[in-house]
Protein: Probable 6-phosphogluconolactonase
Organism: Capsella rubella
Amino acid sequence: MMASVVGKKERKKIVFPSKKELSEAMAKYTANLSAKFCKERGYFTLVLSGGDLISWLSELLKPVYQESIEWSKWHIFWVDERVVPLDHKDSNYKLAFDGFLSKVPIPVANIYAIDQDCAALGDAKGAALLYEECLKRLVNRNIIRTYKSSGFPQFDLQLLGMGPDGHMASLFPGHYQIKDKANLVTYITDSPKPPPKRITFTLPVINCASYNLMAVCDEAQADAVAKVFQDNFDLPSAWLTADVEAIWFLDQAAASKIPKEH
Ligand SMILES: O=C1O[C@H](COP(=O)(O)O)[C@@H](O)[C@H](O)[C@H]1O
């Protein structure tokens, strides 16, 4: 495993021969943390993103995990969501539900999608406000922990992806949302990647998580990955840290342009 540094924090990386090994390792990583947090506090708070990541999560559907994971203790959130109806093809909720969540026994009440009315109306501001309120309620119920003295929500694990432009969640290069340090959840109405209306966790919330796993595959992302590992902070993904561990899982194609010394 190799590591570089963001501020005072390490940015670790593991390069896998292919997507298959990457998804196996991601399943193992997630299952191990689930066991740790379920034992320590009786809950596992897992934050998902959209994109390719969801198909790699299907490893967790294998019998070994189906039988051993304490699914009833899982609580599922989204690091970002497109403000479209929940049954729309662009919805991150729908992607995760169809590909993963509908196939494991996580209680429906533990799956926190964005507000359905705001989603149907395309009300990004309202959706962000209500999602933030939802997080605060779960902090009050001690389902989500808080980060040290800041009071920011602290998730156990976030599984993230990066676009070829270096965006993570719905924090895009050159857009002001990356600088938002006041809110837990913010919104964008002119996303450069369609659909335009989205909500997203802000960077402080993303970086408060105990563990952040960024999974990136394919050559299309290789330039952005190389920029991140050369500390090009114009790319939102270069800012990713975590309380305990921020780790990048890359396939060989995505890692192919990282200079040797990184
Ligand atoms: O639009 C989005 O894109 C990113 C990256 O997706 P990928 O398919 O390039 O991995 C994703 O992480 C985010 O959740 C999603 O809304």
